[in-house]
From TrEMBL:
Xref: SMART domains: HTH_ARSR
Species name: Deinococcus phoenicis
InterPro entries registered for this protein in UniProt: ArsR-like_HTH (IPR011991), Carb_Metab_HTH_regulators (IPR050313), HTH_ArsR_DNA-bd_dom (IPR001845), HTH_MarR-typ (IPR000835), WH-like_DNA-bd_sf (IPR036388), WH_DNA-bd_sf (IPR036390)
Classification via Pfam families: MarR_2
UniProt name for this protein: Transcriptional regulator
Top-level taxon of the source organism: Bacteria
SUPFAM superfamilies per record: Winged helix' DNA-binding domain (SSF46785)
Every HTH arsR-type domain range: 16-93
Length: 219
């Protein structure tokens, strides 16, 4: 008895498919002019420009001015942002898990936490310079949340009533690693304590199947 064929995924709507092709072109060929991209796709320059404008609004691409070959008239080119690069598959999590596994095998269980804690100390030093204790707590929390969001955690600040604040991470970009190495989450908790100089309690954790990582700041 033969297995039933897998159903093919429905095709993307034409505008979305065009945007995806634009991203692929920029990924493969690097910075491109709107004229080059339009020619690749067999479409008009105004049509390509509209799609590129949408991608810019989404933060996936950016425009800059450069001279072809270092000379000649300046021209606008489009290129992927870090967010646009992140839209393509990466194997960072697999590499990280492999490295931590070998580290643990060579130097023992405590080695993983030592390395992650050393990283947290370095990060805390940078953050403390930008978020000194002289700033109001709310401003420091919002600055920390903004930094976390840049790192892919989609973090927000909640609360404020009765002096109780929360940082809520609605995404975990390191989920594959965190599920296998909870030391990563312990190290993150330590980072918050170092940066804020206050007690921090984790109430929920994405790696445990909950919807967010929720940190209570203060007693």
């Amino acid at each position: 008895m033969t297995a039933a064929p897998l159903l093919a995924a429905p095709p993307l709507p034409v505008p979305e498919r065009t945007k995806h092709r634009l991203l692929e072109l920029l990924k493969r060929h690097g910075p491109q002019t709107v004229q080059d991209l339009a020619a690749h796709l067999g479409m008009s320059v105004p049509g390509a420009r509209r799609h590129l404008g949408d991608l810019q609004e989404q933060g996936l691409i950016e425009a800059r001015t450069e001279r072809p070959g270092g000379r000649g008239r300046p021209q606008y080119v489009f290129l992927l942002t870090d967010r646009g690069e992140a839209a393509f598959p990466k194997t960072y999590s697999t590499l990280c898990v492999d490295v931590l596994r070998h580290l643990e095998a060579l130097f023992g269980e405590g080695a993983v936490l030592q390395v992650l804690d050393a990283r947290s100390v370095e990060l805390a030093g940078r953050l403390q310079a930008d978020l000194p204790a002289t700033l109001p707590l709310e401003e420091r929390l919002r600055g920390l949340a903004a930094w976390l969001t840049e790192a892919g955690f989609d973090a927000v600040v909640e609360g404020g009533e009765d002096g109780v604040w929360f940082i809520v991470e609605r995404n975990c970009p390191n989920l594959t690693v965190a599920r296998q190495y909870p030391q990563l989450c312990r190290s993150e908790l330590g980072l918050f304590v170092q940066v804020l100089g206050l007690p921090v309690t984790r109430e929920t954790r994405i790696a445990c199947g909950q919807g967010s990582c929720r940190y209570r700041i203060g007693p």
